[in-house]
From TrEMBL:
The keyword Signal applies. Residues 81-442 form the Solute-binding protein family domain. CDD domains: PBP2_Ylib_like (cd08499). Keywords: Periplasm, Signal, Transport. Belongs to the bacterial solute-binding protein 5 family. It comes from the Bacteria. It is found in: Periplasm. Part of the ABC transporter complex GsiABCD involved in glutathione import. Binds glutathione. Residues 1-19 form the signal peptide. The keyword Nucleotide-binding does not apply. PANTHER family: GLUTATHIONE-BINDING PROTEIN GSIB, PERIPLASMIC BINDING COMPONENT OF ABC TRANSPORTER. This is Glutathione-binding protein GsiB.
Amino acid sequence: MAAALAGAMAVSMSATAFAADENGYIVKATNEDSKSSDNDLVIAIEGSVSSMDPANIPDTNAISATRGVYETLVSFDDNQELVGKLAESWEISDDSLTYTFKLRQGVKFQDGTDFNAAAFKANYDRVVDKDNNLRQRRTFIIANADGSETSRVESIETPDDYTVVIKLAKAWAPFINRLTQFCMISPAALEEYGNDIMNHPCGTGPYVCTEWEEGDHTSFARNEEYWGEKPGVDTVTIREVPEAGARTAMLQTGEADFIYPTPSDQIEAIKGTDDVNILTADSNIMRYVTLNMDLEQLSDVKVRQAMNYAIDKDAYIQLMYSGYGKPATSVVPSIIGGYEEQEAYTYDVEKAKELMKEAGYEDGFKLTLWGDNTTQEIKGMTFISQQLAQIGIEVEVQPMEPATVGDKIYVDKDEAEINMWYVNWSASDFTMDGSLRSLLYSSMCPPTSANTAYFNDADFDKDLDEGLATANEEEQAKYYGDAQKIAWEACPWLFLGNDQIIYSTKSYLSGVYVSPDGAFNFANATLAQ
């Protein structure tokens, strides 16, 4: 594997990156009049659709799939502007505590149940019920350091069937953005299936889920009773194809109409296919490696800083994304509001060795690195392993099925075996709090959330809390700037980079796009025939 990577790196470094035009096209199809042989959309993705329960999803592939079936009160359009969906309008009180939503009338769930205010309340009650142990619970419930909990919502009132009034306990700036992630499930289906709803999806969306087989595919059919504009395709199948070359071949032969992601090293292979477009867009995806600070070897900040100095981030971006991205300059991407650039950990192996010696680890040590077993993830992990070997850290790369990684990570602290985790994260609400709280706040360690560095800093927590409590942008900037500085200097992660999204599509497909958070949207898909 190491030899193969070294060869790949040499090729990548010598290759000329393809430049995107002003509309994001890296490659523009020369045959724009090609037609689809059927009206069935096939999307090939690298990872897995891990759940069809929108209240309990950990990744953007699952977000993408569930958004075909489920809808929210408000959503982001393709320009990341907030628009109404199941809510026709909303008002926010002057003190930012009370949100009043006027719901869309005449909408039915796919089982015939009416969507109304009672349905919203039923979904809220389900999510905040501690016994259900749903990931989305932490949107509304604060886990305090002493083990107690505080609800962000003081009350929910439904004065009539199509009005929902939500009163917050305290002002909470990201609230309206967070509602873009709060999907409505049929209360009747919840009553019948409970938390097995993942196997019986039932929403108000444009598609009906006909089959979900994790690790293989997820299938959808057009919802003929959809309240809005009906989809232009008959069916959609999301196929899980972890091997990059296999996805590329599917696109070239027409077996797939859309593939995501498209690794930059596949661009040359696709160029000769005359009916394929390759596009790129900026993302808020953060690429990093978590470092378990509870491990003796990783408990000294000098070691963690040394590891960051030992990674050539420019080479990483070139190898993994052919230059379509940039090295990390904070704990969040620059696209996130409140981002502040930090002093970079430049590639300096000698400095890294000095820090290792100062920490008493001149001879290094051994660690394991977990990550998904896809072509791209294995390449990235192998690169990290090779870089850290320069300072005496022997890293054993352990690729696994995504579901297996999740099972091993989301355990109680005393059962944790994690050393390092090669991972990426994007905040689908595009807020600073959404980017940091779940990953670095002290009470967000597994199994509650994904703080797999077990980072615990009272000042950092206070900054996040203060930033969340104020709607004043100047004050927010101060608190969030301080939080970024604290985390950056503490090095709970190997800070790698922020890549651009690259995806490929047949020229006869329109209406499918990828958002900056990495979630793809197929609600308005159309295949020219």
